[in-house]
Amino acid sequence: MTPVELSRTVLHAVRRAVDEGELSVTVPERAVVTPPGPGGCGDYATNIALQLAGAAGQPPRRVAEILRARLAGEALIGDVVVTGPGFLNFSLERNASALLVEEILRRGRRYGHAEGFSGTIVRLRCPAEVRAVVVTDALARVLRSQGDLARVECEGRPAPEWETVLGVDSSHFGSHTASHSGSRSGSHPGSCFDSYPGSHSDSHPRTRPSRPSPLPDLDVTVHPVPVPADPLPLGRDAARWALLYPAAHDRPRIPGDHLAQRETNPLFRVRYAHARTRALLRNAGDLGFHPEPGPVSDAEALLAALGDHPRILTTTATHRSPDRLARHLVAVADATLPLLPAVLPLGDEKPSAAHRARLALAEAAGAVLAGGLSLLGIDAPDHL
């Protein structure tokens, strides 16, 4: 059970409590589910009871107990505990982690992606400045992964080397222009491109959806703090990371340590963790065993980070902030690396179910890292 699925389960419990007259509140659109904080327990926690208490006219712990009674018997939830002023803490069934790994391995790099067209059209506007163009390019990729259609208007033609060196997808750019109303006719001083769900870099392209013209576009201006120096000497991967990792209001560090192969470099840790998972799969194959999802002990942080990946993609798209995805990949990498020394058997030890389960978890982590880097337009090499 992922945090997104658990959030839906929590909201269903709230809706049942409202329908049965125990709570008189408006059911919120989402319940925030995160790893438990200090004083918490289990795999995940939510503050939904504290959020609803005021409107319900009841103490938060009373609201939490009402919801706990409806959540305790849900499939894949082993236990629900109320802590502190009214936090709900969830312990998942032991096979829940295996099901999460199975889902990731089934979806591969597309884990967390939406299926089909969401019906949302987002119009991204950006100046012809290198950081703004790279951020917009990454946002278009993330929006596409969530089923949205991204229409981009750039105030001027991006420099050719932003394509050849930085990997900006020029296939989006057309010779046509766009009016401010978003139509394909008229004039505009800049260039325009459309990014369709399932198009271009998608590994499994789908039929391009017809544009539902009656729907208004969501207008978003992408205008991060400009880069203080030319990022091109860093090369594609390091330059894109340097431009995308800082929040939009932060100034990128150029050149920084983005090319350094050491632990202080977040990009190196992310790519190194991915390469290590691929090496372990190769080594396991040489030893004659393969990944098989199952329970893994002492991997709660990694499982929580992997389960949170779909929510991070949604949040990145909603807030137009690829830095959220970049920081999440660092968290996944930092949770992955401690697992890796215990994946392969040591000495004369024979491969066991625990080794196969850890290998499957490592492969799932590698898939999430590779998929996330791909959405940022960054390569995830098998060898580093």
Set out the fold topology.
Blueprint: H1 3-19, E1 33-34, E2 44-46, H2 48-56, H3 60-71, E3 77-83, E4 87-92, H4 94-107, E5 121-127, H5 130-145, E6 149-155, H6 160-164, E7 191-195, E8 218-221, H7 236-244, H8 266-287, H9 300-307, H10 309-319, H11 322-336, H12 353-375
Helix pairs in contact: 1-3, 2-3, 4-12, 5-10, 8-11, 8-12, 9-11, 10-11, 11-12
Folded structure, characterized:
This protein is α/β, with parallel strands linked by helices. It has helices spanning 3-19, 48-56, 60-71, 94-107, 130-145, 160-164, 236-244, 266-287, 300-307, 309-319, 322-336, 353-375; strands at residues 33-34, 44-46, 77-83, 87-92, 121-127, 149-155, 191-195, 218-221. It contains twelve helices and eight strands. The strands form two sheets. It has a four-stranded antiparallel beta sheet with strand order 1-2-4-3. Strands 7-6-5-8 form a four-stranded mixed beta sheet, with helices on one face. Strand 3 and strand 4 (87-92) form a beta hairpin. Helix 8 packs across helix 11, helix 8 (266-287) packs antiparallel against helix 12 and helix 10 (309-319) packs antiparallel against helix 11. The longest helix is centred in the last third of the chain and has 23 residues, at 353-375.
